[in-house]
């Protein structure tokens, strides 16, 4: 099941230049900046209550974010829904006719399993399904001392 809006992703040319807005003008706190080599992006997450703002900056000219910026400029890139069962939620979307960019989950920022649905099958909204982050998952009994 989808539980909440996990984050909203914004495509930007430069995290360094953009974070000033979120930190100084809006007063948010940057949790972490992380490069996701497989996606050719650098990401920065700003917590905002139950959700987060994700800034995405390309790290290579052939990055999907670089192509997006070329075509559309800076702005809202995707919405991320948190799923408590990614495989099942992804299979349901596929079975209902959604075009999957990732037929199998891939590793996103924070080492989380994620998968994207193509905007052509989601009425123009690039849609990410992602598993809960480590801190948000119920404690694993095997982690107890
Ligand atoms: Co995302």
Count of discrete domains: 1
What is the residue-averaged pLDDT? 93
- Helicity, in percent? 10-25%
| Spatial shape | globular
User: In whole angstroms, how far apart are the ends?
Assistant: 31 Å
List of distinct ligands in this structure: cobalt (II) ion
What does this entry look like structurally?
The chain is α+β, with helices and mostly antiparallel strands and 145 residues long. It has a single domain (2-135), classed as 2,3-Dihydroxybiphenyl 1,2-Dioxygenase, domain 1. Helices cover 21% and strands 38% of the residues. It contains three helices and eight strands. An eight-stranded mixed sheet has the order 2-3-4-1-5-8-7-6. The longest helix has 11 residues, at 15-25. It is globular, with a radius of gyration of 16 Å. The model has no long low-confidence stretch (mean pLDDT 93). Cobalt (II) ion is lined by residues 7, 9, 54, 78, 80, 128.
Short structural description:
With 145 residues, the chain is α+β, with helices and mostly antiparallel strands. The protein has helices at residues 15-25, 64-72, 86-95, and strands spanning 2-11, 29-36, 41-48, 51-58, 75-83, 106-107, 113-117, 127-131.
